[in-house]
What does this fold into?
Amino acid sequence: GGSPLLAGQLRRLLEAAIPRSVTDVAELLVRLRERGLKGLARRGRLLKALADPTITRLVDRGDTEAAEARLETLFREEEEPFEPGSVAIVGAGPGSSQLLTLRALDRIQRADVILHDALVEAEVLSLALPGTELVDVGRRSRAGGREVRPEVQGDERRVPLMIEKARSGKRVVRLHAGDAFVFGRGGEEVDALDAAGIPWEVVPGVSAALAAPAAAGVPLTQRGLAKGFSVRTGHDVDGPTRGRLRPEDETVVVLMGLASAEDVLAGLIEEGRAPDTPAIAVGSASREGQRVVAGTLATLAEKVRASGLESPVTLIAGEVGKRALEKTIEAAGDRPAAVEVA
It folds into this structure.
């Protein structure tokens, strides 16, 4: 009111930025609210509806009946479990909010507390709802490798704070840059949550190991040029990774490994890995029918044959595979996994 000129300019900017169909969408939402489809308990459905491009396209075409039907379908969908007192370990991807997964966005917008890395972009954090507690628990590094930690929380407070917030009944998101399980500390956090008896899930993120080459138009694998790739760190307690990794220090992931499982596993033993090295096969990863068969390099091929796993199957070999031998994988989220241990 103090500056009519500024107010007019802001109005013109908003009118240019907001599609005309937003009024029609708002009217559809009002009609659904009048029919009882409302409440904070369904805020995740509302957010999904508002972000759904199909609705605005239908409205723009004048098909408000189809738009209303889609809105009602979205409102009536059951939300994925994200219970108070639990932790979602979420990968925020390489930077852009456009590269978040749908599940990551859902957890961010339903969180009571977000404990985030320093490298998580502000545009990703801005997706959290008003009132969400945002806590920077990241580690920062300068040239020369010296770490600079957040003054108040510090890295030593990251896990205790995560446990404290969950025990107070909060929905906690531990938000990692990239993917929590690729040179992140997701594995350590899962161990701590297990020890504390706190339920958790992992939401994978797009790792910079995949995103950076893709953004530059560089394929990591291509017929006739490259048959595989490894991922290493340039910032570790021992400095950058150099030379050939010892077999016991390397995790091997083989995509599309069902038909050749026996040859692949035998080949890894021939390369110098111990036959009792943990190995797992993951079938239909992240889908409703996900199954995990756990064993060793010496036993997994037979277990896979007996299990009846169907493609797609990913083979994973290395000491990290012992998690599947020691822990119940059902704890990893709302998608049940059948676990068979050799």
